[in-house]
Each structure stands twice: as C-alpha cells, then as structure tokens.
Amino acid sequence: RAVVEAVHRLDLILGNKAAYQEVFKPENISLRNKLRELCVKLMFLHPVDYGRKAEELLWRKVYYEVIQLIKTNKKAEPPFSSLQHIHSRSTLECAYRTHLVAGIGFYQHLLLYIQSHYQLELQCCIDWTHVTDPLIGCKKPVSASEKEMEWAQMACHRCLVYLGDLARYQNELAGVDTELLAERFYYQALSVAPQIGMPFNQLGTLAGSKYYNVEATYCYLRCIQSEVSFEGAYGNLKRLYDKAAKMYHQLKKCETRRLSPSKKRGKDIKRLLVSFMYLQSLLQPKSR
C-alpha cells in the first residue's frame, strides 16, 4: 500500500507542467528515496511474487522517469535541446549529474547485496562480485527456493543493465566519457544471462552511428536472434535500414570528382559500408 501511494504521489509530480523544476526539490528526492527503500524491502520479503515488479517500479519511478523528463524537456533551460549543452555548473546540471551518480552507487550496492544474500557465485561472469572471507570458514547453506535463486540471478542481470544505462546517460553529458564503462556493464549482463537479448539492444544504442551504423546494426541483429529478444530492437533496426537506403541513393547521385588519395580512400570506405548496409536491408525478411 505504501509503494502504491508513493508511486501515485510521484506520478502527480511528473504530470505537472513545471515538473523538471520540481523533481530535484528535497521533499521529492526524499519521496523517491522512501519508495526505493520500500521496493528493496518488498524484493527480499517476497522475491518470487513481487521481486520483478518491485525492481521495475524502482527503476522507472526513482531513476528512469526523472532522466527522461530532463532529457526531453527542452524548455528546462534555453540550450536544452542537447545534453551536451546544459549550462555548466547550473543547479539543474549538478542535480542531474548527482542523480546519475547516486543511481550507479545504489545499483552497485544492490548487486553486491543480492550476491551476498543468496550466496551467488558470479566470479566467472562479472568482475563486480561479492567476495567472501576464506577465514570465516564454511558458508551457511542458503535457505532459498529454486524460484528465489532464479529471481536473484536475473535480478543481478538487470542490475548490470541498469548500470550500463546510467553510464550511457552519463556519457551524453559534456565532460564525461563513460562509454567503455557502459559497454563493460552490458557485456557482463550478457555473461550472467546470455539468452537475454536486451543488452545487445542497449549496445546498439550506445554505438550510435559509428561506421555508418554498421556496429549498431550488428548489435540489434544479435538482440533479435537471441533466445529472448527485445521487441524494441526491430524498430531500431528498421530505422537504421531506412537511413541506409537514403544514404545509398544520395551517394549514387553524388558526382564523381577527382579527389586526393586520402580523401578518395575515405569516400570508398563510406561507399562500401553504406552499400553493405543497404544490401543487408534488402536481404532482411519482410515479416515485420
């Protein structure tokens, strides 16, 4: 009941026209912290029945919706059309950066706590593991059902995806370079649960337009081909194929003029990659 009430109050704040001015007020930060505590409590009290739901609420209401509000509200500050141009050292920028850093700290702590609580052995999958002290002696057997252990393993996977997302959002800010950190978290999420394709979709988003979208296309295709694919990858892939077709036809229209060897090489590489992407789009099945 307390979770539902806190979510309702946060929804009212986000529905306000001036929400971006309200979300970082002390009382609203306190409300999100309260919801976070309640969700964590719910996760460990009833992991099978409410664990996944509590995780989703925590991520969306405490972190993700605030991030989306700041990213999409262009009226927040005059140059807000791009996060690269948030006023340096403004109150909003500081609050937003703190929000992202706090999120990373929280999910790292949660990741360690789940491993410790359920005595998960993830040393072969990730480098952010709970290390037990060998001097303590034998571990007590964990009293958890198979379903609870399954939830714990997948909760660690989702923590790593959330950490990757937070690092990716940090990377969009001026003066921050966390691309490799985000990539690391996504690949570790794949190590914990290789059958889940979602991290490949996030890696595609992280890749952006590198190599004329070839890298992102590869990631989206891997996501789609995973045992458990992510629905959003289909739309992302179609968008890139549409871009490829447009670029291919523009290249064909361009006049061939004499270029220096270095510029010609660059032009040839672009033509090769764009043509390759266009060919990929033609070879894709039209089922979607």
TrEMBL record:
It comes from the Eukaryota. Pfam families: EST1, EST1_DNA_bind. Keywords: Nonsense-mediated mRNA decay. Residues 53-173 form the Telomerase activating protein Est1-like N-terminal domain. Residues 182-281 form the DNA/RNA-binding domain. GO terms for cellular component: telomerase holoenzyme complex. InterPro entries: DNA/RNA-bd_Est1-type, Est1-like_N, Est1/Ebs1-like, TPR-like_helical_dom_sf. SUPFAM superfamilies: TPR-like. One of its GO terms (biological process) is nuclear-transcribed mRNA catabolic process, nonsense-mediated decay. This is Protein SMG5.
